[in-house]
């Protein structure tokens, strides 16, 4: 099968997100200028550089009660900071609950029953139970082609790792099973890893 997106795929559901998998989930926490906190998951998320460490996520829709994008993007535009919380399998239901369409200013941490912790380098909350969190300062916000498609780039200014995830000096993802987004309504939890040496490496 081959199709051009502009012509449509003719399938019951769009296969694009099922093809580009697995995708890490950026569980983005923000605080607005009035001190109100927000938390939402984004599956178009990834690390994009390591010196200095930088990440990206994109928001694909808008809200009627915001004049620009969704709550996360609006807050980041106003404050310039955000935190990426890593989602573990054990937090899957809380992550899903935080994706609810709530009115601007309503706290998804409370809605999902999550405890907050304060970030160290930015004025922003993080998910206290998360296995890791990346504190970020926004470097660019780019409006992409399409309606309300907004790309957010950030530099990591602080890194939190839960102590029980560090095994012999290695951040071991099998200790918490990171959750990844697939297509449709599907997710996967990573529990097994293997290593490969690049050609020429011993």
From TrEMBL:
It holds the Pfam family Flavin_Reduct. Gene3D superfamilies: Electron Transport, Fmn-binding Protein, Chain A. Residues 18-173 form the Flavin reductase like domain. InterPro entries: Flavin_Rdtase-like_dom, Split_barrel_FMN-bd. GO terms for molecular function: FMN binding; oxidoreductase activity, acting on the CH-NH group of donors, NAD or NADP as acceptor. SMART domains: Flavin_Reduct. This is Flavin reductase family protein. It comes from Pseudooceanicola spongiae.
């Amino acid at each position: 099968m081959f199709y051009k997106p502009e012509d449509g795929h003719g399938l019951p559901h769009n296969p694009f997100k099922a093809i580009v998998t697995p995708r890490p989930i950026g569980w983005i926490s923000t605080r607005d200028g009035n001190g109100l906190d927000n938390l939402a998951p984004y599956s178009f998320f990834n690390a994009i550089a390591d010196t200095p460490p930088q990440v990206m996520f994109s928001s694909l829709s808008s809200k009627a009660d915001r004049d620009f994008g969704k709550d996360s993007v609006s807050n980041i535009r106003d404050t310039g900071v955000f935190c990426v919380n890593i989602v573990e399998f054990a937090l899957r239901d809380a992550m899903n609950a935080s994706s609810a369409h709530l009115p601007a200013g309503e706290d998804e941490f409370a809605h999902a029953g999550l405890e907050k912790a304060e970030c160290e380098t930015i004025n922003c909350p993080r998910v206290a139970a998360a296995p890791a969190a990346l504190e970020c300062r926004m470097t660019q916000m780019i409006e992409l082609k399409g309606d309300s498609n907004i790309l957010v780039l950030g530099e990591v200014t602080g890194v939190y790792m839960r102590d029980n995830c560090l095994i012999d000096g290695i951040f071991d993802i099998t200790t918490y099973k990171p959750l990844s987004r697939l297509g449709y309504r599907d997710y996967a939890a990573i529990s097994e890893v293997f290593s490969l040496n690049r050609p020429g490496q011993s």
